[in-house]
Write a structure and sequence with these properties.
This protein is α+β, with helices and mostly antiparallel strands. It is built from 8 helices and 16 strands. Helices cover 24% and strands 28% of the residues. Helix 2 packs across helix 5, helix 3 packs antiparallel against helix 5 and helix 3 runs antiparallel to helix 7. The longest helix is centred in the first third of the chain and has 19 residues.
């Protein structure tokens, strides 16, 4: 009796796995899953995770093929923003597609003196008059196409000098886990260590761009020599009392531009290429938030 029950159970499991191994079924399920969850599905059995199994499609595992089909259904604009790297997993590319469709959040906080503001990950604040730290949209890596972001910053009230500096930085995975007391990506003493993070997906020598909200100062760094300040055209028209600016990273043309009151003030820097993340660097007590699009418009690109 036990043997018969055990055989029946194995048959039911085999039938269930066979049904799941159908790429059409998995594609429908995958549309409701995040990339991490799809990886968990991939690990459940050989039929779903192996590219060498009989169920494999186009020399891909069932889950990889499902992710590929979802990505192929993306808009032309989304695909242009996410060219696939050689050898890149379709599940990884699917993750970046999902990030492209969600609101921007500061996924990495580096330094002890920065924390989330208002209980939401799209806003951060400084918590010390003399401390500083960096916030990075680390899960939202930009590799191609045009990307808009709106930054809204405010200094702390009655706390003396503070700075809210916004811009771009190369992806720095794991730096938020290092337990650093503070962090300044323009610190020349860190340049050598920062350059070690280059995965080969960086291009050119523009690795960090910072725009100071209360003055309009712009600085960029190649992380192998001194930081470079730039007196950009349009700075004279920048309103230092306005707490909101728009930024456009145009990786098709390699340019970073700044907007205010719905108008383009100027191009901050050209020559940008490769991967970047939006970032905010806070000195002192103040806060800053980020939103995809410009001036509240949900123009995701």
């Amino acid at each position: 009796m036990t043997r018969t029950c055990g055989s029946a159970k194995r048959q039911r499991v085999a039938s269930f796995e066979s049904a799941l191994a159908n790429v059409d079924v998995v594609s429908q399920l995958a549309a409701f899953l995040e990339a991490k969850e799809l990886c968990q599905v991939k690990a459940t059995c050989k039929a779903l995770g192996s590219a060498n199994d009989d169920a494999a499609v186009n020399w891909l595992s069932v889950t990889e093929e499902a992710a590929r089909r979802i990505f192929e259904g993306a808009s032309d604009e989304e695909k242009a923003m996410l060219p696939r790297y050689d050898g890149e997993s379709w599940i990884v590319l699917y993750h970046h597609l999902l990030m492209l469709r969600t609101r921007l959040t500061f996924d990495q906080l580096i330094g002890n003196d920065v924390e989330y503001h208002g209980g939401d990950k799209d806003a951060v604040q400084g918590i010390s008059r003399y401390g500083f730290g960096l916030s990075i949209c680390g899960e939202h890596i930009m590799r191609a196409g045009k990307h808009w972001a709106t930054f809204t910053s405010s200094p702390g009230v009655g706390t003396g000098h503070s700075s809210q500096i916004v811009g771009l930085v190369r992806p720095l995975p794991g730096w938020d886990k290092r337990g650093l007391e503070d962090f300044d990506p323009s610190d020349v003493d860190l340049h050598e260590e920062l350059l070690r993070e280059n995965t080969g997906r960086w291009e050119g020598d523009v690795h960090y761009c910072s725009f100071t909200m209360e003055s309009g100062d712009f600085l960029w760094s190649a992380w192998h020599d001194k930081n470079k300040c730039k007196n950009w055209e349009g700075r004279d028209n920048f309103d230092t009392d306005d707490e909101m600016i728009g930024m456009l990273l145009d990786l098709d043309n390699g340019a970073l531009s700044v907007y205010q009151k719905g108008e383009k003030l100027g191009t901050l820097k050209d020559g940008l290429a490769g991967e970047y993340c939006w970032t905010t660097w806070l000195f002192g007590v103040g806060h800053s938030s980020i939103e995809r699009g410009y001036n509240g418009n949900v123009l995701s690109h």
